[in-house]
From TrEMBL, chain A:
Family: Belongs to the ABC transporter superfamily. Ycf16 family.
SMART domains, alphabetized: AAA
Keywords, comma-separated and alphabetical: ATP-binding, Nucleotide-binding
Record has Metal-binding as a keyword: no
InterPro entries the record matches: AAA+_ATPase, ABC_transporter-like_ATP-bd, FeS-cluster_ATPase_SufC, P-loop_NTPase
Domain ABC transporter: start-end pairs: 2-246
Keyword Nucleotide-binding: yes
Name used for this protein in its record: Fe-S cluster assembly ATPase SufC
Molecular-function annotations in GO: ATP binding; ATP hydrolysis activity
Organism, scientific name: Flavivirga aquatica
TrEMBL record, chain B:
Protein name in UniProt: Fe-S cluster assembly protein SufD
Organism this protein belongs to: Flavivirga aquatica
Pfam families the record matches: SUFBD_core, SufBD_N
Family annotation (InterPro entries): Fe-S_cluster_assembly_SufBD, SUF_FeS_clus_asmbl_SufBD_core, SUF_FeS_clus_asmbl_SufBD_sf, SUF_FeS_clus_asmbl_SufD, SufBD_N
NCBIfam families membership: sufD
Domain of life: Bacteria
Chain ranges of the SUF system FeS cluster assembly SufBD core domain: 176-404
Family as reported in the entry's similarity comment: Belongs to the iron-sulfur cluster assembly SufBD family.
Start and end residues of each SUF system FeS cluster assembly SufBD N-terminal domain: 19-167
Coiled-coil segments on the chain, per record: none
GO biological process, one term: iron-sulfur cluster assembly
Length: 250, 437
């Protein structure tokens, strides 16, 4: 589904990704771990099409199509979803209206009519229930004054609504207490199926107890320096990242 | 002959033909003298520092339209709020159109300034209120000198006027350029409530200059909600002079929505002549092209325990220029005043300009006054967030701009006006999304 080949990317002439190779197939869950500043969030942003990042070498293909040159919204229309580490507050736009607009714009891009209001309402209700989201919450301004847990839950709610093929969860566990973590992970697991894929970006192993990865990759200095199964995450939890750094820097 | 000379000589003709009584005759003559002395305002005056009328005054305006024009309702329906029942006072090229209007004298007066100025039964009201709120500045004086037609609204005590009143001025373009000077007088007596919508609409690209004066008097506990929809075409300019005198416990709100027009200057003045008064001034301005919009507000706190709330949002694109000059005066006697002022702006082009200037003159020592102005750009991180969810760039921008102005819109009490403004904003931003936020 996602194939990243020798990807180099920089922001303001500062090189951050230095040759990433990664293949994610439908039905798989990948975890990308690594110390702070290793390029994890940059990778997520580059896949989603953030314009500040420039791809200087290599390419990203999604379902066989090169997507490097596509705008963020075009990638979203093809089924790429990024759950933000820091969801942006947008005062004046309600959660409901935002997601309605996102869904209908995506449908428009596919040549479909707007979703009938009744269907939209039902979908919103179902997905809000899945994430244990209070109805009142849906009429609040997007992310404005939300707690850390509410923001992340809202991200996964939007993921549930948009039903992406590839979901990239960037530090979704940060700022979550254990109950919120369980609800969020549970939501992701329920949305997971044979046709979609999840990339979990995290610093800690904690989330991976709930969203169990098929593969774990360690990112360091803009490269994937180690890959393995879920046991690699446990090893990192025990030993920290220093041994990896030493191995690579040696 | 320049416009000033033309106006001075036209005045002689105008007064000659007029059947005004001595009182009105005197007021007009004083006013023309004031205009003659002061002339049109120039950038040398502090209040006009950022707005030049030079270009607008170069046109050869006709001062008295030669013929009466008729319009088909079906052609201009879209300029009305038509999905609810309203009173309508409609003018075409400055002349009253009975055909398009719906006025009343039943319990309330929703009718014409020309009647009020000439019929004996209104004489007392005219002597008590006419030209009693307007300042002696040059443009209001010019309007006073030629005052003749406009809306006259008088709501007696204890009346809640259920239907909003629409005042609409059309210009047909039958004259190659036209100067319009509507004059409105609105008196709302104790405990009464009225909602008014005002719009100026030019139907062709021929230049129009409107120099309008509206005087509003709100008595004890009266409520007035006034909505100005300024979405005229790019050859139409407007100087709106609105003066509101409030008595105790009255609430007056003016919402100004400015999207169109070549040059728009809003002089909006509130005078609080009683205790526990609330004055509300709100505005959304979204302009581009070479448009120029200048909001010049004054809130004069004269008595204790009053409030004022100002909130103006502006979005400026292309080569547009904006001005916000908000003056608050708190007199020594006006203790416990709460005066708030906010002016937030977004520049979406490198060539757009905004000049914003709060001006607070506070002579009382126990008051709460705050003011804040911001100038920024569209939030890039919000843009990426929205686009990553599938909302295209243009729509994402539109949604952000709409959200930016939403807290002004949310205080609009007539849903049909809110819908209309929302639609105008969507058109203006070139998107087809319904913002029912």
């Amino acid at each position: 589904m996602l194939k990243i080949d020798n990807l180099h990317a920089s922001v303001e002439d500062k090189s951050i990704l230095r040759g990433i190779n990664l293949e994610v197939k439908a039905g798989e869950v990948h975890a990308i771990m690594g110390p702070n500043g290793s390029g994890k969030s940059t990778l997520a942003s580059v896949i989603s099409g953030k314009e500040e990042y420039e791809v200087t070498k290599g390419n990203i293909s999604f379902n066989g199509e090169n997507i490097d040159e596509l705008a963020a919204e075009e990638r979203a229309h093809k089924g790429v979803f990024l759950s933000f580490q820091y969801p942006v507050e947008i005062p004046g736009v309600s959660v409901t209206n935002f997601i309605k607009t996102a869904i209908n714009e995506t449908r428009k891009a596919k040549g479909l009519e707007d979703m009938p209001a009744k269907d939209m309402l039902k979908l919103i209700r179902d997905k809000a229930d899945l994430l244990e989201i209070d109805r009142k919450f849906l009429s609040r301004s997007l992310n404005e004054g939300f707690s850390g847990g509410e923001k992340k839950r809202n991200e996964i709610f939007q993921m549930a609504m948009l039903d992406p093929k590839l979901a990239i969860l960037d530090e979704t566990d940060s700022g979550l207490d254990i109950d919120a973590l369980r609800i969020v992970a549970n939501g992701v697991n329920k949305l997971k199926n044979e046709d979609n894929a999840v990339v979990v970006i995290t610093h800690y192993q904690r989330l991976l107890d709930y969203i169990v990865p098929d593969f774990v990759h360690v990112l360091y200095n803009g490269r994937i320096v180690k890959s393995g199964g879920k046991e690699l995450a446990h090893e990192l939890e025990e030993k920290g990242y220093d041994w990896i750094k030493e191995e690579v820097d040696a | 002959m320049d416009l000033k000379e033309k106006l001075l000589s036209s005045f002689l003709v105008f007064e000659d033909k007029s059947d005004a009584d001595n009182y009105l005759h005197e007021v007009r003559n004083d006013a023309i003298k004031t205009f003659e002395e002061k002339g049109f305002p120039t950038k040398k005056e502090e209040a006009w520092k950022y707005t030049s009328l030079n270009k607008v005054l170069k046109e050869d305006y006709s001062v008295f339209p030669k013929q009466e024009n008729a319009l088909d309702y079906s052609d201009i329906k879209k300029y009305f709020i038509h999905d609810i029942d309203t009173y309508k006072i409609v003018f075409i090229d400055g002349k009253y159109s009975s055909h398009l209007s719906q006025t009343t004298h039943e319990g309330i007066d929703v009718c014409l300034m020309s009647s009020a100025l000439t019929k004996p039964k209104y004489r007392l009201i005219i002597e008590n209120y006419f030209n009693k709120a307007a300042t002696k500045d040059s443009l209001p004086s010019l309007n006073t000198a030629f005052s003749n037609e406009g809306a006259y609204i008088h709501i007696p005590k204890n009346k809640v006027v259920e239907k909003p009143i629409q005042i609409i001025h059309f210009s047909t373009g039958n004259e190659s350029a036209i100067l319009l000077q509507p004059r409105n007088l609105i008196v709302v007596e104790e405990n009464s409530h009225v909602q008014i919508i005002e719009r100026h609409q030019s139907l062709t690209d021929n230049p129009v200059l409107t120099n309008s004066v509206t005087e509003i008097f709100t008595k004890k506990r009266a409520i007035v909600d006034y909505y100005k929809v300024q979405n005229d075409n790019l050859n139409a300019s407007l100087v709106d002079n609105t003066f509101i005198k409030q008595k105790q416990e009255s609430i007056a709100s003016v919402h100004t929505f400015t999207f169109g027009g070549k040059l728009t200057r809003n002089n909006l003045n509130f005078y609080q002549e009683g205790e526990r008064i609330d004055s509300i001034l709100k505005g959304v301005t979204i302009i581009g092209n070479k448009q120029h919009v200048d909001h010049n507000t004054l809130v004069h706190h004269i008595e204790p325990n009053c409030e004022s709330h100002q909130d103006y949002k502006g979005i400026f694109g292309e080569n547009a220029t904006g001005v916000f000059n908000g003056k608050i005066i708190v007199e020594k006697e006006a203790q416990k005043t709460n005066a708030f002022q906010a002016n937030n702006n977004i520049l979406i082009s490198d060539k757009a300009t905004i000049n914003t200037k709060p001006q607070l003159e506070i002579f009382a020592d126990d008051v709460k006054c705050s003011h804040g102005c911001t100038i920024g750009q569209l939030d890039e991180s919000a843009m990426f967030y929205m686009r990553s969810r599938g909302i295209p760039e243009k729509e994402a921008k539109a949604l952000l701009m709409y959200a930016f102005s939403n807290n002004v819109l949310s205080s609009v009490k007539i849903p049909e006006i809110k819908q209309r403004i929302t639609k105008i904003i969507a058109n203006k931003l070139g998107v087809n999304i319904g913002f029912d936020l």
